[in-house]
Amino acid sequence: MPGVLSIRNLRKAYGETVAVDGISFEVGHNEILGLLGPNGAGKTTTISMVLGVLHPDSGSIQLEGKSLATHRSTALARTNFAAVYAPLPGNLTVQQNLRVFGLLYGVKNVSDRINQLIHEFDLERLRHMKCGALSSGEQTRVALAKAMINRPHLLLLDEPTASLDPSAAREIRARIVKFAAQGTGGVLWTSHNMYEVQEVCDRVLFLSRGRILLGGNPKTLPGEHGKQTLEELFITVAREPLTLGLS
Ligand code: ATP
Question: Using a 6 Å cutoff on CB, does residue 41 contact ligand 1?
């Protein structure tokens, strides 16, 4: 059975800047894969290509064995995402936003699905509030509820807990772990919070200047490279990859 997401030799340049330089990786069923890397490493560019927002210069993207290039609507119907840089329309209420996205994704019994998500993400109190008036943490909760509306097979999360307080972040992490454990879905997760990555991700990839330099289990990877913590490893990979024999 193919993975949920399969990327081969993906490349994207903006003029002279090569943002993604021939990367290949898979996200398996029930797997949470962490895509790590310093600012400008190419994480958002990669996610944007998987979402079909950016066209790769070369390489392939397959969702459950179907090429995004040739089965775009089928592939994208099974995908969803949440990112701080893509807020929901602020002049619509929480319920209206969920309805719009539910209809866009062709969700059956959309009212029932909205009620379910409002309950699951504890949004009842905010249901009729305009999204633009919500705190950043509340907006994140709504964005995650929206990301689940079509019961995606692939969930793309770009720093999903960046604006959440520790208790809300823990709750959100638990929901995402539950999502990955149920059904056959997979998650591609970017975060700069190494504690979170170690807790949540089954596997991580270190991206630097558009290339994958390292990958493995975030719990054992630091020790394999003579480092105490994932953060220490991250800093070394970002600043001095040659000291680890990477380039
Ligand atoms: P961050 O952690 O800061 O969000 P990132 O890993 O998501 O960074 P990208 O946003 O993918 O990195 O950027 C990768 C590289 O591509 C950077 O050098 C960036 O300056 C460049 N880049 C991204 N978008 C554009 C664009 N629209 N035009 C020109 N260059 C771009």
Answer: yes
